[in-house]
Amino acid sequence: MTTHTPRIFSGVKPSGGLTLGNYLGAIKRFVDMQGPQFETIYCVVDLHAITVWQDPAELTDATREVAAGYLAAGIDPSQSILFNQSQVSAHAELAWLFNCVARVGWMNRMTQFKDKAGKNAEKVSLGLYAYPSLMAADILLYHATHVPVGEDQKQHVELTRDIASKFNHDFKAEDFFPMPEPIIEGPATRVMNLRDGSKKMSKSGESDMERINMTDTADTIAKKFKKAKTDPEPLPETLDGLKDRPEARNLVDIYAGLSEVTPEQVIAEFAGAGWGKFKPALADLAVAKLGPISEEMARLMNDKGEIDRILGEGADKADAIAQPILDRAYDITGFLRSRKR
Ligand code: AMP
Ligand code: TRP
């Protein structure tokens, strides 16, 4: 069996501004995984963003903003490859091969598609339906072995394994594609909406009050936590006491994620405290952690040339890994390739 070098790939869509969910569930963890143990490749997945309508000028802006978020949070371009997906054409090419490997039945089981399409399934783009096959291409194009994501992406990484395995099997290319592992760890892999603890915090919810944006000011952050939905009970003595209290559990998990402790430790510190005590403590913590990041994002957004340069250089490095793997995938598939390049 071939062993693949430990390599991380992950991505964030530029389909609006970054949220606290993106930060705790993804970007903060990407930063923590930089180091000698893994090669790290982080992408602004712009091709994914257009599965739903994006205004062209806003797409460009949002692409730079996600890149600025990565950089401000601590992704270091000398340690990690940072680029935007559309600058490396191999993503779209491998996705086509995978569209012909993945089965319609597999796609029909994707819960995120069902949620997003809802009753409108006939009207959404074909890209939204095929999206998981592009995501599989993103990961497998680099022979990535580990994929840090939030809870909502688990099924897509599992589908990626199914695609890798069917490709390897159908073309008798044993171990050509690795079986990537989803890494879903920490207290905040599913940050919930601040107004409804049964819904995920997302970039595109109806009301701005339901999410914390990475670019929110200190006052806005404090106001949003103050108005966050809770229940009348104080915090319990043990974590078990939060079982049927989704909104309360969410705020405890956010506190744990931001302060890098476990939810148990948060409960130990705040057992018996009411919201009048906990919410301001949470707001102060969030402002202390997010403030410097949003300041740095603002600084970077004033230097678009610098962001574009970093993404361009990252794309060159990404392309150098991706192209030979795509070429081999084409060879394995039997495509005639006689152009001199
Ligand atoms: P997206 O914004 O959909 O491109 O998501 C990018 C990454 O952030 C993925 O790994 C998601 O799982 C993660 N993510 C997005 N929203 C949340 C959330 N509310 N809680 C935890 N992780 C999230
Ligand atoms: N689909 C992911 C999301 O919406 C983003 C994404 C695209 C991704 N390609 C990826 C995540 C590859 C991890 C690896 O959140």
From TrEMBL:
InterPro entries on file: aa-tRNA-synth_I_CS, aa-tRNA-synth_Ic, Rossmann-like_a/b/a_fold, Trp-tRNA-ligase, Trp-tRNA-ligase_bac-type, Trp-tRNA_synthetase
The protein's assembly and partners: Homodimer.
Subcellular location, principal: cytoplasm
General function of this protein: Catalyzes the attachment of tryptophan to tRNA(Trp).
Keyword Ligase belongs to the record: yes
Binding residue positions for ATP: 13-15, 21-22, 150-152, 191, 200-204
Record's protein name: Tryptophan--tRNA ligase
One Pfam family per UniProt: tRNA-synt_1b
GO molecular function: tryptophan-tRNA ligase activity
Binding site residues for L-tryptophan: 138
Organism: Aliiroseovarius salicola
Keywords of the record: Aminoacyl-tRNA synthetase, ATP-binding, Cytoplasm, Ligase, Nucleotide-binding, Protein biosynthesis
Domain of life: Bacteria
EC number: 6.1.1.2
Transmembrane domains' residue ranges: none
Motif extent ('KMSKS' region): 200-204
Family that this chain belongs to: Belongs to the class-I aminoacyl-tRNA synthetase family.
Motif ('HIGH' region): 14-22
Location relative to the cell: Cytoplasm
Enzyme class: ligase
Catalysed reactions, as listed in the record: tRNA(Trp) + L-tryptophan + ATP = L-tryptophyl-tRNA(Trp) + AMP + diphosphate + H(+)
Source species taxonomy: Bacteria, Pseudomonadati, Pseudomonadota, Alphaproteobacteria, Rhodobacterales
